[in-house]
From TrEMBL:
Occurrences of domain GGDEF (ranges): 207-342
Organism: Myxococcus xanthus
Name used for this protein in its record: Response regulator ActA
GO terms classed as biological process: phosphorelay signal transduction system; regulation of signal transduction; regulation of sporulation
InterPro entries xrefs: CheY-like_superfamily (IPR011006), Cyclic-di-GMP_PDE-like (IPR050706), GGDEF_dom (IPR000160), Nucleotide_cyclase (IPR029787), Rev_trsase/Diguanyl_cyclase (IPR043128), Sig_transdc_resp-reg_receiver (IPR001789)
Keywords: Phosphoprotein
CDD domains: GGDEF
Record-listed 4-aspartylphosphate modification sites: D90
Family annotation (Pfam families): GGDEF
Ranges annotated as spanning the membrane: none
Domain of life: Bacteria
Amino acid sequence: MGFEAVNPGWASKSGGEKFTREGGTVGVRRKRVGKAGQPPTVLVVEPRAADLERTRLLLAEAGFRVVPVTRFDAAVPLFEVIRPAAVLLDAQAPDFAAVQVARRLRQLTHGAVPLLYLVDERDAEARRYCLERGQCVDLVPRSGSGSELATKLHAQLKLKDAVLRAAAGEEAGTAQALHDPVTGLYNRPFLLEFISLEARRAERYGGGFSVVAAEVGGWSAFRKEFGRGMAERLLVYSAVVLGQTVRDADAVARVGDCQFALMLPGTPAESVPEVVSRVAARFDTARFQVEGKVVRTSLELGTVSFPDSVGTPTQLLSAAQQDMRRAREFRRMVGSTSRLSV
């Protein structure tokens, strides 16, 4: 395969509660065990051998099975062989190869495998680059103890497991109770529980998330003209478009008659405009046919981000919907002003 890797050094600890390093005692969670009775595997990609070895030791002590590699061009082939539970990518100037690898891994996994960028705390350029162009991948700084890195990884894997269990109906009785019967998307109760889970994770381990509210423009008038059956077909069509636009790691839910909401884990406020632009652009090109005629769909959008805004899950969803309504009223005012000035 032609990649350079440090000896993986599989974790040999038996799940102890504490360990001592550099004169201090650090709390460590017990090992998370995978399907085959093994701890979760993490692929770590760092070109600097010393940093790579340090990260490997920190994660091994925290109960992870670590596969270290020093070359970014080996990351994707190695990923396809070992299929790790999570991936850590060292982000640094000038080429920021980690971002390109993250993009490829998201395409390969449909966003289902947690990714994290390792960023030096004093590297403002790397932090800014990852926030603006990092494919909505979460960041973790290099700290002295490395505890934040381990806890973030545990949190990401725990969140992923919880969502998968909920989607399978293991925690809510049946999967049908979590889905909207018309569109097949998640429903409002599931979305609120997901927001609550992510808020608790962010409060404990840091990071953030965003919620996007969306409403199909002119849906009430469309239903009045063409009937409820055709209006529901428009909702299903809109749901498909939304599902094709967001990452698989995100959750799309129907929260009202013609309203949807997107839950974006690990997505800070700085990354939301790119997501909103992508969703809006996708709907601008979408076409829905009724009786042989093409009907253009439009989408009203509003956002809220945690921890910039805090509150209960219902309050956060309401804040995103309020932002959506404010944006709609602003466009109407601008349109009225433009017509008056002509």
